[in-house]
Amino acid sequence: MTSDVKAAEAKPSLKAILASDLPASLVVFLVALPLCMGIALASGAPIMAGLIAGVVGGLVVGLMGGVPLLVSGPAAGLAVMVFGFIQQLGFAVTCAAVAAAGLVQVALGGLKVARSALAISPAVIHGMLAGIGILIVLGQVHIVLGGSPQSNAWNNLRELPGQVLNLHGAATLLGLMTLGVLIAWGFLPNGRLKKVPGPLVAVVGGTVVAAVMNADVARVQLAADALSAIKLPALPEGSMWGAFFVAVLSLAVVASAESLLSAVATDKLHTGPRANLDRELLAQGVANTLSGLVGGLPITGVIVRSAANINAGAKTRWSAVLHAVWMLAFITLLGSLAAYVPLTVLAGLLVHVGLKLVNLAHIRELRHRGELPVYLITVAGVVGINLLAGIGLGLGAAILRLLWQLGQVRVEIHAANGVHQVCISGALTFVGVPKLSTALAKVPAGSRVEVDVAVNTLDHSGFEALESWADTYRKTGGTVTMEPLEDVWTRRSARAAPTAGPAAPSHSSPVHHVSTLSPGGVQ
């Protein structure tokens, strides 16, 4: 392939951008617009804060990011966290925390540690998102029914029966209608109608019905002048500094993890250029710093908008950039139209978003892999205590599960024809050494022993424990037949390392050459 052809593929023509990215950007704009407003509502922030974040995320991350087809903006995954910080610190100080969190992300991107964030257990991430989804549903369902959300999940759940018994006429009808349209839209067969974004249909439909009914319901409030809606950040005062630093680190960690996981998921949806995660993290940090400085919500990569972008035919980063341009045009030229949108309609949209965060496919997969307890512990912590506690409990459970797995060494001893046969399988690590020592202590002194080392994990502690036992056992006059542990270790390393030349022979099960451990020592 010539360099001219490569250059043509790397830099699509204006005609190609207009043909693919322009229509895709309109689809993403129509999906993102109601979501940005709804997430701001769930965050307890001004509606304009969500729109500002959508514009900044699209423009900055779209131009600078390392994942061309990823669409960034305010995300439901941070709504509950931001709501808590606004209640504790106030909106202006929360904006300062968003800006500072962006600087932390920039530093992390510069240090090229993006890949390390992927080490967080998926069970913890999915549990965090599910817990957030449950909190969003419990809070916003009160607005759908025409009431007001309570301060926490327990109070929302406790007040729900009373809310159901005391419905609010038109507000309840509009909220339930919005939710019904969104659910029904998911069952439509693929076709031209399905290509119209469901959130747009639900919000526009609910707004039109409210206008026809002349319903007396609370509606979105936007400043007539977009510039006047910009809220400058403020630094905390007095005893709030501790909570401020917690907010900064929390936003940086959760926003980074969500963005990087969305980037990896986006990579799986297309065959174009692969993700540069460090560049993406740096771009997300710049966007968050700018968003916080101009009164916007925190920004992350969003897989739902990214999937819509790819499904609409986007080929380059210009789709994400253009969707932000359309959003900016709406804010400056058509912002008055938002005043017709009932809040209960946006709440219905948010309930649907929250329900989708509890992903049944993820639950089934985690159950199959034995990680469901970590998921459930994370969900319980997020819903029952708070987001940070839930993440901490989930990480703790994941570590305990790992230690439990590392300790799953199996030692089976059988005596036949005067020979004690010892089979060691599973993971022989420092966690399993006590169990190994206890089992080997039952082998009578001075016997003939055949040891089958069929472990899939062997660390230095396990190596030394088994070698030390063999050396000690020979002093009783016994004989041990066992594959040299150096060979076990070497074979495991060879299986783990990639081969550069012809395919290496497969070792689906350990090969057991034997040598004799006698008073002469290890052979």
List keywords for this structure.
523 residues; alpha/beta; Transcription Regulator spoIIAA; 2 domains; five-stranded mixed sheet; two-stranded antiparallel sheet; 21 helices; 7 strands; STAS_dom_sf
Description:
The chain has 523 residues and is of the alpha/beta class. It has two domains: 16-358, no CATH class; 408-493, Transcription Regulator spoIIAA (2-Layer Sandwich), CATH 3.30.750.24. Helix content is 61%, strand content 8%. It contains 21 helices and seven strands. The strands form two sheets. It has a five-stranded mixed β-sheet with strand order 3-4-5-6-7. Strands 1-2 form a two-stranded antiparallel sheet. Strand 4 (419-428), helix 19 and strand 5 (448-458) form a beta-alpha-beta unit. Helix 2 (14-43) packs across helix 15, helix 3 packs antiparallel against helix 14 and helix 4 (79-89) crosses helix 5 (91-110). The longest helix has 30 residues, at 14-43. It is elongated, with a radius of gyration of 29 Å. The chain starts with a helix and ends in a 6-residue tail after the last strand. Residues 1-9 and 498-523 have low confidence and may be disordered.
Question: What value does the average pLDDT take?
Answer: 83
Strands in their spatial order, largest beta sheet: 3-4-5-6-7
The backbone outline, from C-alpha atoms, is elongated
Strand content of the residues, in percent? 5-15%
Low-confidence stretches: 1-9, 498-523
Q: Helical proportion?
A: 55-70%
Q: How does the major sheet shape up?
A: 5 strands, mixed
Total domain count: 2
The tally of helices reads 21
In sequence order, what are the helices and strands, one letter per element?
HHHEHHHHHHHHHEHHHHHHEEHEHEHE
Number of separate strands: 7
Radius of gyration: 29 Å
Structural class: alpha/beta
Distance between the termini: 57 Å
Transmembrane segments: 22-42, 49-71, 91-111, 123-145, 165-188, 200-220, 240-261, 281-304, 324-351, 372-404
Subcellular location: Membrane
Pfam families: Sulfate_transp
Domain SLC26A/SulP transporter: 18-369
